[in-house]
Amino acid sequence: MLIDNGKKPDEPYNAALGFWLPPDSPYGNFQLKYMKIIQRLDEANRKINESLYFWNNCRVKGILPTGALERHVFANEEAIYMLRRAADELVSLIWCLSEHEENGNYPNKIKPKSCKCSHSHSASY
Fold first, then answer.
1. Given this model, what pLDDT does residue 118 score?
2. 3-state class of 15 per DSSP?
3. What does residue 46 show for φ and ψ, rounded to 5 degrees?
4. Residue 32 placed within a domain
5. Is the pLDDT reported for residue 119 higher than 60?
6. How would residue 117 be classed by pLDDT, with cut points 50, 70 and 90?
7. CA–CA–CA angle 50, 87, 45 (5° rounding)
8. For the chain, what is the domain count?
9. Does a structural domain hold residue 6?
């Protein structure tokens, strides 16, 4: 049920989980950026666990525990936010590395593009 990133959310990051990335790009150390993506996935997994905990609290018969449903919903929203941020950062990292591989240079500017989800209602995120 969790996002598989090679480790449990509370285990420390191990460089063996990754691969070599340039440490000296104009945009910083790509290895550290990759590590940050893994940390975001860890946090998303924590939020998924939290969501499940509160969902199970909501499933008991009788009166719902105070705030359990809202905390379940908020944990889901936070997990989705972390996943979107990790996806955006991964897309940017791959694009920047692809540009460097094709042209021999890093791009002068990274155009912000976001992984957008289509919604049936208009909501601001």
1. 42
2. helix
3. -60, -40
4. yes
5. no
6. very low
7. 15
8. 1
9. no
